[in-house]
Write a structure and sequence with these properties.
By secondary structure, the protein is of the alpha/beta class. The chain has 20 helices and 30 strands.
Length: 693
């Protein structure tokens, strides 16, 4: 059994083993073309006929049309094209047709995109209008009632792919009938197949697209239902297959597999009952509540498919949640498109008018009706592991006191960064350049570590510290006097290498010195090191923090090996040094196939996992090549770089999930003068998955 737990059923599903067998059969023994009249063709045709007959019964197609095609996106095109051509014909006959192409605000993008495309191509100049939904994702029926007379086509999905929210199709049908609307009606049934009972010909629905790969059939096969009497125009013309409705030799492997899934649905002996699926959802939801304090569910369970959970966790981005679940090998998806730094909010949750943090931080966990008890139990255990990993990293509140952290922490937000100097022994810290966007993270970190913040200093004057000060409460003495850089009036002084005497703050055994720089001393830089009596010699300065790293002012007071920590970091360099500007050349990539050989040639090589600590903690499989790895997340690189640069430099092999983060680490170390630094190409995602014992 694979260690991977797949909980992304709304994106796609594995293929039912019996469906794989059926597909293989059509590629082996029954490979014929169903249009051929010889025996090989007839055998293939029998498979096609059987699959269709099953679909007709199961979906209650009645006298309507049902054609196989490549999937729902094609089905949506065909439906939209057919309806628009029908409208054009009605218009040219002088009949009144509506002017609106009305679609639910939470429809899959395939719907509005197809409407806009065909409307433009056919030059119909109809108006696209989104039909709003309420906070539960239900369509605004009053608005539909108002617009129904002007609607030419209405598109409403049976169940939503992000939230699983089920549409009240009967209510929509009621409004269309009651308003005597002449609009055509398309219902995207992709997420409903196998989960909701659909007897199509007994409804007013004109078009219903389906997709195989959302219910245990392969990708590239689907179906379209068209009500008897609804306009129909083929999208693809050619050899006349599918009774001339969809030309092209049939995808027999896909159809045979889909037919097998439909037959299993019809027999009712393969998939879980609604009750069992609801119980699975309840167990997952309980585990999420226990593991992730404050979790909120974005879909109302009583109005949603039991197979979808959509949730957000205060203080955590969807990126962080995705990463920790992925590290625990639980495959879920972000409820929204996720860019490298900030997640774009979900348009579905936005349409439900959820606050931005929920819409941008949402995670979708979805399973299929084949789910079993063991998988759900294992998923619950992994969720608990993820929660523990996040608590230990201070990303979510923890009742137990976290292990105190020491050293430097970098918190980056869109090219700028804040730094924290942490001292475990005295449980204190100093914050340098607190960004407003990092304030919540700094605050929860300080609370979780139970640290006292000695100072909140900035490299620029009057750089707004108020929000953080308010948030820190008793962890910071807000009444202590400070200048416009946040530098405490009570600071002592220290003499630097160039003889200048500057302000100094003690944090544990280290000293943070403040010096003016920039043309008119309008900027501040900070030096961190250990003093020698009243002096801070250049050689003892380990770190220098400044908005512009290669500042002349720093040269006289720091050493070649001092790490320069920028408070602007557009290029994700993390840190640099005076001597590193002449970057080391060479290829920093190490192919995972070459890793074993590399480790044999360099037994002293060190493997470094640069993922976040909660990803490291959630991982239960060994590191690459079965070796134990050291955990040094990117924001702790500066802290460790000095140590790696010292003495005999062992080769460093950085890795992460995909190779994106580790390549930055390898390049940084090369820049700093460690040419034997590599990044494992493709990261853990491309390393072969270990099997469970
Ligand atoms: N409609 C919905 C609701 C979906 O979830 C999807 C797939 O994500 C589609 C349409 C597109 O389906 P297909 O992948 O078969 O083209």
């Amino acid at each position: 059994m694979s260690t991977e737990i797949y909980l992304d059923g709304n994106a796609t599903s594995a293929v039912l083993p019996a469906a794989i067998d059926a597909a293989i059969d059509t590629m082996g023994g029954r490979f014929g073309n169903p249009s051929s009249t010889h025996a090989a063709g007839l055998k293939a045709k029998a498979v096609l006929d059987e699959a269709r007959a099953c679909a007709l019964r199961l979906l209650g197609v009645g006298e309507g049309r049902l054609m196989f095609n490549s999937g729902a996106t094609e089905g949506i095109q065909t439906a939209v094209l057919s309806a628009l051509i029908g409208l054009r014909e009605r218009r040219s006959r002088g009949e009144a047709v509506g002017s609106l192409l009305l679609y639910g605000a939470t429809e899959h993008k395939a719907v509005p995109e197809s409407l806009a495309h065909w409307n433009r191509l056919l030059g119909l100049e109809l108006t696209l209008q989104a039909l709003p939904v309420d906070g539960d994702g239900a369509h605004d029926l009053d608005m539909l009632r108002q617009l129904a007379a002007q609607a030419a086509l209405v598109c409403t999905m049976a169940a939503n792919n992000e939230t699983g929210v089920v549409t009240d199709l009967a209510a929509i049908e009621g409004v269309l009938i009651e308003t005597n609307s002449a609009a055509y009606w398309m219902v995207d049934c992709v997420q409903a197949l196998g989960k909701l009972d659909l007897q199509l010909s007994s409804t007013r629905i004109d078009y219903a697209p389906f997709s195989g790969h959302k219910l245990y059939a392969p990708k590239g096969v689907g179906m379209l239902y068209v009500r008897k009497g609804a306009p129909f125009t083929p999208l693809i013309m050619g050899g006349g297959q599918e009774s001339g409705q969809r030309s092209g030799t049939e995808n027999m492997a896909g159809i045979a597999a889909l037919g097998t899934v439909l037959a299993a649905l019809e027999r009712g002996d393969t998939f879980r009952s609604q009750g069992e699926l609801c119980a699975f959802r309840a167990r997952l939801a309980d585990s999420l509540r226990a593991a992730l304090p404050g979790v909120v569910f974005n879909n109302p369970f009583d109005k949603s498919l039991p197979t979808t959970l959509n949730f957000s966790v205060p203080g955590l981005s969807s990126r962080e949640l995705m990463d920790v679940f992925d590290a625990a090998q639980v495959r879920v998806s972000a409820g929204s498109a996720c860019s490298s730094s900030k997640a774009a909010p979900s348009y579905v949750l936005d349409a439900m008018r959820l606050p931005l943090w929920r819409s941008a931080g949402a995670i979708r966990m979805s399973f299929g009706p084949l789910a079993d008890d063991a998988t759900i139990a294992a998923a619950c255990a992994r969720i608990e592991r993820c929660g523990a990993a996040l608590r230990a990293s201070c990303l979510i509140p923890s009742e137990r006191t976290a292990v105190p952290h020491d050293g430097l922490l970098q918190l980056g937000v869109e090219g700028a960064c804040s730094w924290m100097v942490l001292d475990a022994a005295s449980r204190s810290c100093i914050v340098i350049d607190p960004l407003p966007d990092a304030a919540a993270r700094i605050e929860s970190y300080v609370r979780c570590q139970n640290y006292q913040v000695l100072a909140i200093v900035s490299t620029l004057p009057n750089a707004g510290r108020g929000m953080l000060i308010d948030a820190l409460g008793r962890h910071f003495d807000r009444h202590a006097e400070a200048d416009e850089y946040g530098w405490p009036a009570a600071a002592k002084s220290v003499t630097l290498e160039n003889g200048a005497t500057v302000g100094a703050l003690q944090i544990g055994k280290q000293t943070l010195a403040s010096l003016g720089c920039g043309a008119g001393d309008e900027l501040r830089a900070y030096l961190l090191g250990t003093t020698d009596g009243e002096r801070l010699p250049a050689a003892s300065v380990r770190f220098a923090f400044s908005a512009r790293p290669a500042q002349q002012a720093l040269r006289a007071v720091s050493a070649d090996q001092t790490l320069l920590c920028p408070t602007r970091d557009e290029r994700n360099q993390f840190c640099t040094s005076m001597s590193s500007e002449a970057a080391a050349e060479g290829d920093a990539h190490l192919d995972s196939a070459a890793l074993d050989a590399f480790l044999q040639a360099h037994p002293d090589a060190v493997l470094i996992d640069v993922r976040e600590p909660y990803e490291f903690a959630a991982t239960f499989t060994p590191g690459p090549a079965g070796r134990v790895a050291q955990s040094v997340p990117l924001n702790r690189l500066a802290e460790h770089a000095a140590e790696w640069l010292r003495g005999n430099q062992s080769p460093l092999i950085f890795f992460c999930r995909s190779g994106n983060r580790s390549v930055k680490a390898a390049q940084l170390l090369r820049r700093l003068g460690h040419p034997q630094s590599y990044s494992l190409t493709g990261g853990l995602a491309l390393a072969p998955l270990p099997l469970a014992a």
